[in-house]
């Protein structure tokens, strides 16, 4: 038994929403961590409308910071919370949305994050995020998974910090280069899924990335939907 979890920066739904719906539907994710997810006052209906169109529901969301966790029909949502992270003058508000979900007896604490372009803020927020994730994981007996737009690359400090706390799913699965940005010409891996140690990473792929697989996801839709590519992993118990 595995759980499909994905992360996707949807660029505020500023691009083709029909293409975005087709991409998300084709991912077949049980859990989806969204970044730049607009709120309910958005012209196109925001994250709730997007979730409904994709056959999902909003499990957790932050009013600020543009992060949310969507749950598919196989998921039972056990807990949800959000937190605005430490504010830095002159920088954007950043937040964490966390949903504890259960799929066929496997329980995950899924956290959606969108880290800052400022290096020191990224690292400070990452430590804050991990403190929350450790607490939620312990309180609910769930394996922590963090998905998001990290806004840096694997050799940089914040990524290294997260990879020291959790397992970077893409290299654990050894599938392609995993480049996620930009969707039109992917040359950087700045979006990722990190899972608790002891979790079995069955697969992890970035549809459209070199060496990855698009499967049912249309390459044209990936370009039309957002400037980022999604990352999707299959996780099991007992890694």
Automatic annotation (TrEMBL):
It comes from the Bacteria. Keywords: DNA damage, DNA repair, Endonuclease, Hydrolase, Magnesium, Metal-binding, Nuclease. Residues 6-228 form the Endonuclease/exonuclease/phosphatase domain. GO terms for molecular function: endonuclease activity. Its cofactor is Mg(2+); Mn(2+). This is Endonuclease/exonuclease/phosphatase family protein. The lineage of its organism: Bacteria, Bacillati, Actinomycetota, Actinomycetes, Streptosporangiales.
């Amino acid at each position: 038994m595995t759980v499909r979890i994905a992360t996707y920066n949807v660029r505020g739904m500023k691009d083709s929403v029909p293409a975005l719906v087709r991409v998300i539907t084709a991912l077949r994710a049980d859990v989806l961590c969204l970044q730049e997810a607009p709120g309910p006052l958005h012209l196109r209906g925001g994250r709730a409308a997007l979730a409904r169109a994709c056959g999902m529901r909003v499990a957790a969301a932050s009013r600020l910071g543009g992060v949310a966790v969507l749950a598919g029909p196989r998921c039972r949502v056990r807990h949800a919370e959000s937190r605005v992270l430490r504010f830095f003058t002159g920088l954007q508000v950043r937040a964490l949305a966390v949903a504890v979900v259960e799929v066929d007896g496997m329980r995950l604490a899924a956290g959606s994050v969108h880290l800052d372009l400022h290096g020191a803020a990224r690292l400070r927020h990452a430590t804050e995020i991990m403190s929350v994730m450790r607490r939620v994981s312990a309180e609910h007996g769930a394996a922590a998974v963090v998905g998001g737009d990290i806004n840096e690359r694997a050799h940089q400090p914040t990524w290294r910090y997260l990879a020291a706390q959790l397992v970077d799913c893409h290299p654990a699965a050894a599938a392609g280069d995993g480049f996620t940005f930009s969707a039109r010409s992917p040359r950087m891996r700045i979006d990722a899924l990190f899972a608790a140690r002891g979790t079995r990473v069955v697969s992890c792929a970035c549809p459209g990335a070199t060496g990855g697989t698009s499967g049912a996801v249309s390459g044209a839709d990936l370009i039309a939907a957002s400037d980022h590519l999604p990352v999707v992993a299959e996780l099991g118990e007992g890694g």
